[in-house]
């Protein structure tokens, strides 16, 4: 198909011991060779195809359906971001890692906004590539495990005993506590409000319809009734916002310490706009006076996805 080199037909070797498949798209043949060697010599997976241009890139991605695409930004025919957006629009569910010499911050931000999970600068550093791929592969395994569990629960749903059904809220609470522990916000003043917000949206996940301001009011009213006094929705929102801002700061600090930490690579893109994580990192090390910005909606919906909502 099209302009593909070093192709392996999808399905060939499907029972291979290597669990992950990769596609490399880069106009530099030496980079393609290097990435393939890094992946296969370190037993990270198998490169099923490599391309030298962006032309027909989306079609090739959909045809081979690799777990991970390593793609350059500046490509002949169609740039890497355009290829990625086209593939995602057409239903591709895998991950993108961008490997490029581009250093322009708006261009890097555009790539993260489009959906990459990590950006690696050129010249290629072998250790960096290995660590990033291992982190992404770990997240893929977690997603697969969650999918298998959810499918099993759906299959067994009709025969679930009432005691098991009643245990589901406790299960959601346990998962939520684990996420908040990872983020370092357990015990924060707004953690209780944030928990209520997440669980409320988790309950309405099936309908997909909710209004944040209305839920803030519900939380404020419930708190006023339980604890006495007057609590307004704006206060609830501010506490939630401060707690999420703290989570962002904690993730940014973790990224500075270990940019390949699996919690950082997962939560940094799931709960935040990654360019804002980078901005917070700059703020923490004194390179900027402006902090990273948070989105309550993105954060909450990311956490809900972790609960299996």
From TrEMBL:
GO BP annotations, alphabetical order: phosphorelay signal transduction system
Stretches assigned to the Response regulatory domain: 21-137
Entries under PROSITE patterns matching the protein: RESPONSE_REGULATORY
Domain of life according to the entry: Bacteria
Protein name in the entry: Stage 0 sporulation protein A homolog
Ranges for region Disordered: 1-20
Protein's organism: Acidaminobacter hydrogenoformans DSM 2784
UniProt cross-references to InterPro entries, sorted A to Z: Bact_response_regulator, CheY-like_superfamily, Sig_transdc_resp-reg_receiver, YcbB
Keyword set, alphabetical order: Phosphoprotein
General function of this protein: May play the central regulatory role in sporulation. It may be an element of the effector pathway responsible for the activation of sporulation genes in response to nutritional stress. Spo0A may act in concert with spo0H (a sigma factor) to control the expression of some genes that are critical to the sporulation process.
PTM sites of type 4-aspartylphosphate: 72
